[in-house]
Design a protein that fits this description.
This protein is α+β, with helices and mostly antiparallel strands. It has 13 helices and 19 strands. It has helices at about 10-25, 65-80, 90-95, 105-110, 135-140, 155-170, 175-185, 225, 235-245, 255-260, 270-275, 325-340, 355-360, and strands at about 30-40, 40-50, 60-65, 205, 210-215, 230, 275, 280-285, 290-300, 300-310, 315-320, 365-370, 370-375, 380-385, 395-400, 405, 415-420, 425-430, 435-440. The longest helix is centred in the N-terminal third of the chain and has 17 residues, at about 10-25. The chain is globular.
Length: about 450
Amino acid sequence: MTSSHEQLLPGTRRALLHRIAVAQTEGRAPSLVAAVVRDGQAVWHGARTSVDGHAPDEHVQYRIGSITKTFTAVLVLRLRDAGVLDLGDPLEKHLPGTGVGDATIADLLAHTSGLAAESPAPWWERTPGSLRPELADVLGERPFLHPVGRRFHYSNPGYTLLGALVEELRGAPWEDVLRREVLEPLDLDRTSVRPQSPHAGGWAVHPWADALLPEPVQDLGRMAPAGQLWSTTGDLARFAVFLARGDDRVLSAETVREMRTPAAPAEAADVADGVSYGLGIQIQQRDGRLFVGHSGSLPGFLANLTISVADDVAAVVLANCTSGPLLGAVGADLVRIVAEAEPRIPAPWRPLAEVDPEVLELAGQWYWGTHAFALRLTADGLASLEPLSGNGRRSRFRANGDGTWTGLEGYFTGELLRAVRRPDGSVDHLDLGSFVFTRQPYDEEASVPGGVDPDGWRGIK
């Protein structure tokens, strides 16, 4: 999986192995397998197992549970990018007759639909999907627990509906669409709806004794889009690269960035814990790092995919036990170990390919009232506006080709930045969503709303 120039240092590899060894031992997992991705390539694979001589490798399948939801979300975003639907559309517009059609597609993706977390009894993870052959069987008689769009409430039935939406609009089974549109383009040939040899068996570990009980493996039927998939550390490593960088054969970098952006209102406890949810992506702030990805569990299996986009490092951790090791913490630690032991080497600085004098004229210091900002032009063709001291509103801006710029992040996301010029062509001020930025604080030569006191700045005697 690695080539010599991508290898981690021996000390880093030992620290990674130590971390998963502790997790497997203390979590009492029959086996635990992990991989680390750096700079778009898998650079480390490790495994620990209770069976001598049978350590799993990057080709052994484990069930990945709710990481399946991220795959389903990708299929829905593909429909949006193709113009087939809008995320603001109510479900009823494309999948009529469910009885829950007031929820929008965005609500379903972000778990803000108000739907229940689980389907009605019997316990869907441990019973055949044939017991729930129709959407009505998945939703039950009381599908809504909360008002639509008001709060984050994780919902497995919600992703069942998204899978049905994909089938309706693509005219093919969810698993066929997934294979054609995601798995094959990304070369995820060891990811499948049903287990393919070699694969791990799922186990329950007795809470008070070092004893095992095999867990049943059920086909989830209608609920497959919420948690059916089997995969490997090798395939999920490639999927992590896609979620960090995009792939125009599947989704653009801009769309996967949208998936990684918080889309659900957070509960007070979630704010304290630094967790939120995007579009099929879990988001967490942990020890000063922002992690995105998803966790998964089904009886007999645990899974976690953790990505630090800023560090360009990701980790995959899989185990074949119902409970035990906290894989989210393990994944975050694997990323941290690599990011701190071998910090990302930035790309060489390069100048702009060409310089537009009218754009260059805008670079430099500006004032919003008395707040000092700097506008910088970067080699990637973007402009950045940020305060010169302290915290404050900051954003990068993308040129629109007509002399205006659109904000890409933070408070100014989607807001329009433009230079307002005087009749002689000189720049009077910058207009950013009606806010006026001038070259001097309350510049008396600029068009400042409300005017500038003619006596100017003064002291107090």
